[in-house]
Specification:
alpha/beta; four-stranded mixed β-sheet; 2 helices; 8 strands
Length: 132
């Protein structure tokens, strides 16, 4: 059977600032770096790509920075084994909380909804069936 892995890419206004924010909150690391593009990894796996709006590379611009809100209808969802630590790191950055930590009954896990520096909604979630 074929294997598929998501490798989301979002356009951001400041790649380096967004990389620092995501790396701090998620406890991941950037493996590319720079002002135009970064790849964020956790445990060696690619979890998110950040691309500056205005940079065209070989494909043209990713999006229009004037077209706000960014990511309307998009949720960047990250499962973490230590949601309490991730929420604490987000609090250190004074991340905007869209929805405080709560139990989602269907997957029976904990969730906390945040807003990143560009306004994208980021959901931190514990593993399914971890809410007791």
């Amino acid at each position: 059977m074929m294997s598929v892995r998501a490798q989301p890419l979002i356009a951001v206004t400041d790649v380096e600032a967004s990389s620092r924010w995501y790396c701090h909150v998620l406890g991941c690391e950037g493996d590319h770096g720079g002002p135009e593009y970064d790849r964020l990894k956790s445990g060696g796996a690619l979890i998110l790509q950040l691309h500056r709006f205005e940079v065209e590379h070989d494909h043209g611009p990713i999006g229009d920075p004037a077209d706000k809100p960014y990511g309307n209808g998009l949720l960047l969802w990250f499962e973490t084994d230590d949601i309490d630590a991730a929420i604490a790191r987000a609090a250190e950055l004074k991340a905007e909380v869209v929805m405080p930590c709560h139990r989602n009954p269907r997957p029976n896990h904990w969730e906390c909804w945040l807003r990143d520096p560009d306004g994208y909604i980021v959901v931190l979630a514990s593993p399914d069936d971890s809410a007791g």
